[in-house]
Amino acid sequence: MARSRNIFLILGILGLFVYSSHSIVQTKILQLRLLLAREQLLNYELSSRMLRARFRQMLLQSDDTATEMRLKVLESSVLNFNEENRQKLRLSAAERIGLGLVNAVRGLAFKPFLRLEEEEDALLVLQYAFYMERTRKYDVAAAKYEELEERFASLGDENYAFILLHGGFCLALFGETAKALEKLELVQKEFPGSHYETNATILIEILRESLQKKEKIEKQYTTDLERARAYFAAGQFSESLKAYEKATGKNIRDNFNMARSFEETGQTGKAVQEYMALMNQPGGQDLARQANRRLLMIGNFYDGGEELKTYAEEKAQELGDTVILKDIQESAQLQLSPTVIEKIEKGSTDVSEETVATLNELKTELEQTLKVETAAVQSIVIEKKAVEEKQEERRRLELRPIDSNYRLQIVFLDGRKIQGHQAVRSRSSIHVSSGQVSIRLPFSMLKEISLPPVNDNLEIHLKIGWSNSRSARSIVFEEETARVVLFTGEEIIERGDFKSADIAFGENVDFPLRVELDSGRISYARSLFFQNGDIILNGHRGTITFPPERIRRIGILPEQTIELYAANDEMAEAAATLDISKSGLSTRPGKKDYAYTDLKAAVPRKR
Question: Hey, CA dihedral for 53, 54, 55, 59, is it positive or negative?
Fold first, then answer.
């Protein structure tokens, strides 16, 4: 009996030993997987090299869009990974026992305990901090790095080095130079001979050089505007903004510098507003392109939102900046989507309770920082587009000047060629008028009246005799007759029957309003205006004023409508036909009556 108990005891001890060994092995395998996942995830050395390049580009003011795009694409691969490749760290019972045994041994050896679930939690925060850094929320990123620094300080591993290095970078860009130097100098001290120490040394040199420049600027320049420009050139964006706020006499280049400074210090909403204000500045075509390129970058790489992205792409087309637009669009497609943001927004159940709590906390913070900023930018874009549409509407309501191409070409027998809007015969003379100028020549010298080769929709409106009219391409005069070149053939008339010629238009997209006069003649116009009881046609000869009784009806080309605008520029109604009377007009369909004093303009628009 005693022997049986001993055997069972031995077997129990062996079983416990095997189970404990299995648990320890499982824990070690889990730890190894975590380390491998972290190595794949963080790619620390690559991130350090990118950080150095980005720091140089920002503080030394190297405005290289191509390099910036490459860095953003590379950064998207750091601290990012597919959810299916993520190691789940909800520990099983065997793994918890193994972890307890391993930590007991580490405690006897005075080594820090392993906290695998807590490390996953910290890894999530690290991903979030790096994403905030990438999107220029330096204050949020710096706070998260500070929080992580406390967790990893006792370990002194690569995580700690990464956190110190990137935390210093964020503090520097946020304007906390002294704190940034402390972090970077700690990297030099704790990680000698590593790539962290190399990069920290370079960043320290750049920071100290910028501090020296700051002292020099303070002594060298006397006005706030001079200091602001010098600070910007030195990459001292926070100081530049402070000086610009106090400066007077700023030009559009200074406005661009302010926008760039807002952007580099993480104030994206203010930056977008400044860039948009530069888009329509007179004489600033090159600067408008630069401003729009920054909007393209913010929209495609810095979470500016879909509205901003679309707006900037449309502006790039208008500005003819299609090459850089294509480059930015192609580079943006190479970015990896930020899985940490997706994970925070969706939440997760296959993680520890601590990680669930962290996810909830980060989700709240995300909604209060990045999403609020993105929504603010979207609102700015929508408001700007509404203003631009209003301005475009006002431009459509402006009277257009006379186009010199829309004139008759008049040739005389002696070789003289003149142009005019109208040629009228008066007994033995021909009067050619062009605007306010009229030229009188002998009718017997007239050889030909034709059209300029600018528009197939142009017509010559000929008056023949006292009651007949023709629409023709040209008229060629002989000694006793005249050959009228029609659109469907030719017609011979008596030379003496010619009374007048002026230019007219067939229906086309430039002159879609069809104006029927009391004489039965049809004219065409771009738009019309109501002023002091008169109707002003904005037509091919510029503007012509008619009393209402001279016009019967106004129609529109198919698939278009006539928009009536009230005196306050607000659209009153859209109609297909306007019936004109002496006191006002009525619309079809609808038969709504308006007094001329209540209206400002009628403008065509596609339905």
Answer: positive
pLDDT at site 374: 75
Q: What confidence tier does 32 reach under pLDDT thresholds 50, 70, 90? A: very low
For residue 276, what are the CA distances in angstroms to 161, 251, 381, 385, 392?
A: 40, 15, 8, 10, 16
Question: Do residues 461 and 503 lie in contact, with contact meaning Cβ atoms separated by under 8 Å?
Answer: yes
CA distance linking residue 435 with residue 232, whole number of Å? 54
Q: How far apart are CA 273 and CA 294, in angstroms?
A: 12
202 touches 184 (CB < 8 A): no
Q: Among all chains, which residue has been given the structure tokens 């203010």?
A: 270
- 567, 598 contact by CB (below 8 A): yes
Asked if 502 contacts 461 with a C-beta cutoff of 8 angstroms, the reply is yes
- Taking only the tens place, the pLDDT of each residue in 359-388 is 677 777 766 666 667 777 888 888 888 777
pLDDT digits (tens, 9 = 90+) for 488-521: 889 999 998 898 888 776 666 677 888 888 767 7
Q: Which of 76, 25, 85, 83 is nearest to 47 (CA)?
A: 76
Q: Which residue in 183, 232, 240 sits closest to 51, CA to CA?
A: 183
Write the pLDDT tens digit of every residue in 167-207: 888 888 777 888 989 998 998 988 888 888 888 888 888 88
Dihedral-angle region of residue 161 (phi above 0 means left; psi in -120 to 50 means alpha; beta otherwise): alpha
| C-alpha span between 114 and 125 (Å, rounded) | 18
Strands 513-517, 498-505: parallel, antiparallel or unpaired by DSSP?
unpaired
Tokens 């970015």 sit on residue: 335
481: alpha, beta or left? (left if phi > 0; alpha if psi -120 to 50): beta
Query: Is residue 195 within a helix (H) or strand (E), and if so which, with residue range?
Result: helix 195-220
Please say if the pLDDT value at position 30 is more than 70.
no
Residue 259 is predicted with a pLDDT of: 92
How is domain 43-78+115-220 classified at the architecture level of CATH?
Alpha Horseshoe (1.25)
pLDDT band at 578 (very low <50, low <70, confident <90, very high): very high
Residue of higher predicted confidence among 59 and 158: 158
Chain center to CA of 163: 33
CA dihedral 566, 571, 572, 578 (to 10 degrees): 90
Q: How far apart are CA 474 and CA 545, in angstroms?
A: 27
Collapse the DSSP code of 465 into the 3-class scheme (helix H, G, I; strand E, B; otherwise coil) and give the result: coil
> What's the whole-model pTM score?
0.58
Scanning 76-194, the segments in alpha helix (DSSP H) are 93-108, 116-134, 138-152, 158-173, 177-190
What does the alpha-carbon distance between residue 271 and residue 266 come to, in Å, rounded to a whole number? 9
What are φ and ψ of residue 82, in 5° steps? -70, 140
Instruction: List, in order, residues 6 or more apart from 244 with CB less than 8 Å away.
Output: 224, 225, 228, 250, 254, 257, 258, 261
CA distance readout (Å), 117 to 95, 251, 333: 11, 56, 34
CB 418 within 8 Å of CB 439: yes
**Mean pLDDT of the 384-408 span:** 66
Assess contact for 132 and 142: CB atoms under 8 A: no
Contact by Cβ (8 Å): 120, 340: no
Cα(394)–Cα(390) distance, rounded to whole angstroms?
6
